[in-house]
Amino acid sequence: MECNMRNGDDCSSEKLAGGEDVSSRTQSDVSSADHLVIMVNGILGSSADWKFAAEQFINTIPDKVFIHRSKSNTSIQTLDGVDVMGERLSLEVLEVIKQKPNLRKISFVAHSVGGLVARYAIGRLYRPPKENLKGSSLEDSKESMPTIGGLIPMNFITVATPHLGSRGNKQVPFLFGVSVLEKAAVLVIHWIFRRTGRHLFLTDDDNGKPPLLKRMLQDFGDCHFMSALRSFHRRVAYSNVACDHIVGWRTSSIRRNVELPKWEDSVNEKYPHIVHEELSKAYDDNQIFTNNDDNINDLEEELVIGLSRVSWEKIDVSFHNSKLSFAAHSVIQVKDNYLHTDGVDVIQHMIDHFCV
């Protein structure tokens, strides 16, 4: 996709379904935009975290996308648990779809824990082909495919998301990989991050059930977690290879330690902070795996295998030469468009490869 940057004044914002919407000021663009992009913030975050990225999407492809920055889980609400947040997000998405009847497609762009919340939400929004309502104006194009909230699933993009949780060795880099500190964190994390902390550190035990992140590896009841994830045209994981003190490289890129690629400084002037890209094909259900990684436990191995049953585009990012390298977890999404400008090329990469 060619980049067609415009002046930021071409963006218009409005409130819809409790969130913040960004669209073109041009009426013809608004009328033709049929692709809903849901942006989801991380822990203790807000819809403002995606302000820069939302505006760049609209400036580049104004006639294609309608951006909704979710506001159903902000600040202290992000401590209520991945499932509770996922339920809120799914209801918010349905309300947006209800108010915008011209929408045909849907994508998600989520930061940090927001990626887990989005994975839960799409599991609730998933509709198998047979459940698509007859008489719909989109019936012909949808009758043979699943939908998310009645829309065609396109891009599912996570940015520095702890897909494997935060419990494993070096999954939370600021604990320095010290076993004693990591074990202590498991015991006290719920005091700080409450129910969300339990989900991240895989210590939740709802009526004897397995940890939520493990349950999200399959479909059960009316939660079609893996079917929903598989239904998207593409799945993308942007990860910080270093300097992210909140979410480690392994958990955000869904890899075993031995699978982490060697990387060098980027020579691409357009994307100077993208240091490695790969397409990980989906595992075959009949494949047999031998865990030769001493730094991965059995539960983490299950998460790797489960999430690898679908293909992923893995985009590795490094801000090690940045003056704000210590803030890589925020820079990668340009959380602040004045302080975190080093991450602009990551957002541009996201837009340039976006399937509309």
UniProtKB/TrEMBL annotation:
PANTHER family: LIPASE ROG1-RELATED-RELATED (PTHR12482), LIPASE YOR059C ISOFORM X1 (PTHR12482:SF14). It holds the Pfam family DUF676. The lineage of its organism: Eukaryota, Viridiplantae, Streptophyta, Embryophyta, Tracheophyta. Residues 1-27 are annotated as: Disordered. It comes from the Eukaryota. Residues 32-251 form the DUF676 domain. This is DUF676 domain-containing protein.
